[in-house]
Amino acid sequence: MTKENVQGASEEEPQGQSKKGLKKQQKEAEKAAKKAEKQAKLAADQQEADEDDFAKDRYGVCPMVQSRQKLDRALVRVQDLTPEKAEQQIWVRARIHTSRAKGKQCFLVLRHQQFTVQALIAVGDHASKQMVKFAANLTKESIIDVEAVVKKVDQKIESCSQQDVELHVERIFVISQSEPRLPLQLEDAVRPEGDGDEEGRATVNQDTRLDNRVIDLRTTTSQAIFRLQSGVCQLFRDTLINKGFVEIQTPKIISAASEGGANVFTVSYFKTSAYLAQSPQLYKQMCICADFDKVFCVGPVFRAEDSNTHRHLTEFVGLDIEMAFNYHYHEVVDSITDTMVQIFKGLHDRFQTEIQTVNKQYPSEPFKFLEPTLRLEYKEGVAMLKAAGVEMGDEDDLSTPNEKLLGRLVKEKYDTDFYVLDKYPLAVRPFYTMPDPNNPKYSNSYDMFMRGEEILSGAQRVHDAQLLTERAMHHGIDLEKIKAYIDSFRYGAPPHAGGGIGLERVTMLYLGLHNIRQTSMFPRDPKRLTP
Amino acid sequence: MALRELSSLEKCLGLKKPTKYSTQGERKVPVLQNNNGAALVGLVTIASHLVHEAKKAELLGNSAEDRAVVQQWLEYRIARVDNCPKDELKVILKELNQYLGDKVYLAGNVFTLADILMYYGIHHIVVELAIQEKERFLNITRWFDHIQHYPGVRHHLPPVVVLRNRVYPSGHH
């Protein structure tokens, strides 16, 4: 800055000050006026608020429920709110799914698990303006208790599960408040993928869901999926118990890798190390040698496979079966397929609500199966693939794309989503698989498929210690490591066979979903260890 | 490649005497040396000449319009299909698929040279398509299956398996 400019500036100053000063003063005056206005309004509001709130004791935030008192009050579940309860005054505990205020009215949608109902608070005999305002300001997902009268509605409320009734709220209390900013919006989480892109509305991606699993699990779709999964487990147990099976529990901390050394987790075990079981295989078989005849077990399976695919987890729930048979391993195959069919039937009969709920977000074709279950020989499967133009050798293993294509061809030819492929080539099966007596290149082993994806791998097991030793040597396995296993067959072992399915995979494929993380509550994969 | 096509074409047209061709240039453009000294250069030129020799001019189209359409597709074959880059492939397949939506043959509702040369030209693409893609480009697959079974057409090329029924329901995957 030159001296002249400085001078100029100071010369201007007195004039500038008056101009600037005037402006400044004006601005300050405006500000003060606005502030005064605001304060006056606040005071007026406050006055209004204190003024005559006749409903003051009909709403509010309850003190934290610390089991201070035993209230003899029956709470009705949202799913039980039907026209039969019309005009009854009842209490409901539910979450606030959405809230919308319009002048003197506030519409809430209350949600409990898969069910939603509309609730109305209007200024009137029971509710004051302040109460309506209170309701409108409640945060989503807060748990509230409402006392309301059930009213029948003339027009069906399409957006709720309880379409024929509405609640007219008389009292409303907050039991547990939710923070206002949710990590994900439940409406977004339930929106089908296609819709999101078209209408510019958001859907929630999988990682966000899994990071905030607790909120994601509250959605109607998640509730339906896991209820159905619970059904799969229950049907599995019930069917097998009815067939005379015994449920066993096998150890998960073991001294030697059961399926092969590569994909096993190591844990430190006092002064040495141990492994997490990759399958209950060895113990199932030992139970058969201990004369339990027919056993099954439900428990975690740990596979340290560094596969980041849509169908692999590092920890999943295995439903395993092992059975002694009389003369032919098909006795076992038939028993397993019958169990699967009973599960499918049970799901179809008892879980239609859940299946429909899932289909709303993830549409898919209903699951089809044949009775008796379709069983194809491996050779036939290869022939079908070759006829469709696939080039493969007769004794090659099926690659995943070929498995899927074979599933499609079978669906087209036989109209079934579930089938068994029997007599796999011996070379592609584990060492404990019994070879085919008529053709040494094949084995008494089988895989079962749902919607073209493998769900069960099983076989007749080698129950002769000497043959087992030969097969192990042929596969280059260290005999020392499996000494205890081989020993269990030395003192009379019945012929037996079995197989295992993955709970998450069966649920996923039954519902026609495409990622196994959707059917695992807190999934574990190479990249995820929490929640 | 082009030479094998031409010899297959000769067999298809019923020409008894196999002709001797030479090639020119990097792209191995086929050349047919005529008796009177003039040389015919280019697959389409030679193919048309062979059609006339075999006295099967109808294979080039019956009306003026049909002849024009045949020429258009022959040019398409040389200009777009031959040596097309990978990202162009889907575009070509889409175009052809849409065009064949309501046609049995490429030109004039009759079997023409355009069908033969287009079949030779896209064979290497179709043979690589997965079943799902063959179903996506359903019209091309239908036309292709028809032409490859047309008596006398398929000589040097392996047959492509086409399933009779759809295996992938439309709209899924």
List the SSEs and their pairings.
The complex is a heterodimer of chains A (531) and B (173).
Chain A (H helix, E strand, L loop, with lengths): L2 H48 L8 E3 L13 E2 L12 E14 L2 E8 L2 E8 L6 H8 L6 E10 L12 E12 L9 H5 L2 H7 L6 H6 L1 H4 L3 H23 L3 E2 L5 E2 L11 E4 L2 E5 L4 H9 L4 E9 L12 E10 L5 H21 L1 H10 L12 E4 H10 L12 H15 L3 E5 L22 E6 L2 E8 L4 H10 L8 H5 L8 E7 H9 L20
Parallel strand pairs in A: 1-7, 2-3, 5-7, 8-12, 14-15
Antiparallel strand pairs in A: 3-4, 3-6, 4-5, 6-7, 9-11, 10-11, 12-13, 13-18, 15-16, 16-17, 17-18
Helix pairs in contact in A: 7-9, 7-10, 7-15
Chain B lengths: L1 H12 L7 E4 L4 E5 L5 E3 L1 H11 L10 H18 L4 H14 L13 H14 L4 H6 L1 H12 L24
Antiparallel strand pairs in B: 1-2, 2-3
Largest sheet of chain B: 3 strands, antiparallel
β-strand number of chain B: 3
Share of helix of chain A, binned: 25-40%
Low-pLDDT windows of residues of chain B? none
Q: What would you say this structure looks like, in words?
A:
Chain B: It comes from Triplophysa rosa. Chain B: One of its GO terms (molecular function) is translation elongation factor activity. The complex is a heterodimer of chains A (531) and B (173). With 531 residues, chain A is of the alpha+beta class. Chain A contains 15 helices and 18 strands. In chain A, helix 7 crosses helix 9 (330-350) and helix 7 (220-242) crosses helix 15. Chain B is mostly helical and 173 residues long. Chain B has a three-stranded antiparallel beta sheet with strand order 1-2-3, covered by helices on one side. In chain B, a hairpin with a 5-residue loop joins strand 2 (29-33) and strand 3 (39-41). In chain B, helix 3 (64-81) runs parallel beside helix 5 (113-126). The longest helix of chain B is centred in the middle third of the chain and has 18 residues, at 64-81. Chain B is globular. Chain B starts with a helix and ends in a 24-residue tail after the last helix. The mean pLDDT of chain B is 85. The chains are: A alpha+beta (531), B mainly alpha (173). The A-B interface holds A 365, 387-389, 405, 408-409, 411-412 and B 131, 160-161, 163, 165-169, 172.
